[in-house]
Amino acid sequence: DRSKLSKRQESIGIEYFKEKGYAPIALLNFLGVAGGGFGKQESCNPEDLDTLCSKFNLESVNTGSCIVDLRKLDLFNHNYLVQQLSNDRLTTNLIKELRVILKKKYGKRYEKEEKNLPDSYIKKILLCYKDRMHTLNHLVESDMEYLWTVVEWEEIVEKLSKMKIPATTVAKFKQVGCFLSDLSESEFTQDNLTQKLREMCVQLEVSYSSMMRALRVIFTAQKDGPGISEIMDMLGKKRSLEKINFVVGKMHNNDTGISES
Fold this sequence. Notes:
It is a single chain. By secondary structure, the protein is mainly α. The chain contains 13 helices and no strands. Helix 10 packs across helix 13. The N and C termini lie far apart (about 55 Å). The model has no long low-confidence stretch (mean pLDDT about 90).
């Protein structure tokens, strides 16, 4: 916001940046650009500590107006994540870091679902969002929660009722599961699902918009967010079907006020 840095600001302490998810090496590179000592830097690609030390020149350190562009820190951290994801060993380290963040954020809800979140799944999510995220914390924002946790049954019932999803749509959930189970893994992609979901609604004689709202409740319990085809692509076939079949099973047992008929 171009305001001057002050020691009274919360966002000047190291712990603040740590909690926000910035990597130490990204912060070091950012400070080097802000304070000088490294000559003219054309890009925001982070360099390792040894390289920074070899480049440092005390005579190049300068004073400034105390106004810093924190967007550069985002770029440094984004490029750091991209670098990590280009190497299998470093990607494994990122996955471990993200698991720590997930456990801290969601607690028992994450632990309950952890068995369904193998490293291969987390790697897929990281690679899909690498061009959009500046820190790993991006992956635990509210619209990303569906990737890591299970929506509670009571919340699904409440949202279906609140959003006035027609009973005729709800009654088709079992058939939705059957339709999707017939798709191959290779067909379970965002581009392909967009068309397949429309074909499904025509086949089931149900409103497309109504069914998409219903599926959003099942998958995320949210009113807005990514498109359903993107959500299902991220979840994968197995987890998408598990979430649908969970609801179908509850309806069959008539656990609450909604039913298959």
